[in-house]
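for the record, two folds in this file. i put them one after another cuz i was lazy. first one right below, seq on top, structure tokens after. the second one comes after a little note so u can tell where it starts
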Amino acid sequence: MPLNSTSLTSPPAPVLMEHCCRQPWETYMEPIKMAPGVWYISGNDWVACYLIDTGDGLILIDTAMHETCYLMIENIRKLGYELTDIKKILLSHAHGDHIGAARTMKELTGAKLYLGERDHFFLTERRDLIFCDGYTCGEFEPDEFYADDKPITQGNVTIHTVSTPGHTPGCTSFFFEVTDKDGKTYKCGMHGGLGLLWNSKKAFKEIGLPSSLMYEFVDGLKKLDKFDVDITLPSHTNQVGILLLKDQVTEDFNPYYDPSIWHELMQERLERAEKILKKFEEEEDC
């Protein structure tokens, strides 16, 4: 599964956000089976949400935008599930394209809602940092915050969360294993937020966030690059070429199985982030 060749040249997020929210039917994407019991489910072709069948209820990772929520709901039902089968909703970080439908999905499912604690102030004090761009993002309160030493278990799936600040202060990554019908186990991994939003200390200062987040981002990439991941679950489709391979998925063939992709993705973002840190040092020297 090659890195998406458009990952460095795709339209800016506001353009994609507007397209998804104003013409959601044009961005509709049917469910894609990423791993045994794991589905790309968001209903749009930009922001990734994943549905995990644990054998005893479902876990939903991220909710995408409120405006595209009806398409995700249709996908969930298309797979034969009911919304009330969702028992846990895990949010990777508190940006509107990932939490816009969080309140809606919580109300419809009754699921327990999780968020990284360092993003909580986005919801209470700095809603401007959610970057909703004028689109809907209902207010909600997480039921629980993540802790790296406290895995989240539902049915036969245990998700290990790793705090990976940078994209946001509370950005969280997810790692879990699933097993196919033949007993083969696959390690799945999702970095909670790989976007590089600001490239100078001045930009961080203007937005009101500490530039130390860039250092934390680099440390997180180095840490996660040591993980073994068989199937990379991107938080956005322009990070990894999942859309290029979706038509190759069969009951007996998974084109997303490629242990090299995780490391390629971590290294690609690390290279870009370290260039920004070098710029930081040059700013200090001025």
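(here's the note) second protein begins now
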Amino acid sequence: MKALRQAVKRRDAVMCALGAPARPFHEVTLLSTATRAFVSAMKAEHVSRLVTIPGIGAGDSAEHGGLLFDKLIFPLLLRKVYVDKNRQEAIIKGTDLDWIIVRPSVLNHKPRRTTIQTLTSLNEFHGGSISPEDVATFVLDQVTTDLWLRKSPLIT
């Protein structure tokens, strides 16, 4: 805890891009355990802005990852990881922090684009992809804007 407090001390925001390996036969708790720890450190050091990237398929974006992801990859490989991602989101949403949960669509290897489509209703989302550079740009922008505060935008 001391190391985490030192890491967040005098910071404007914390960005969390934790990942966990596929462990289809073992419980995954890395994301929720780490989230509890850094939320605690943030509160102790009076850091209020948290931007996190659990990815599409977590929380209220479940079953919006596309046919291959939703019907094959998720149930066979990632189900236990996403149980923990859901716990992670519940921890974040249960705080009084200024959080933004960013949900990138499938990452691609294309060059950065000039526009990023941002959705809060996934009813109209039918797949898409985004470059890691575009994700990074969007996430960094969240440090200084309140447009998506306490929301979970999908970016594509």
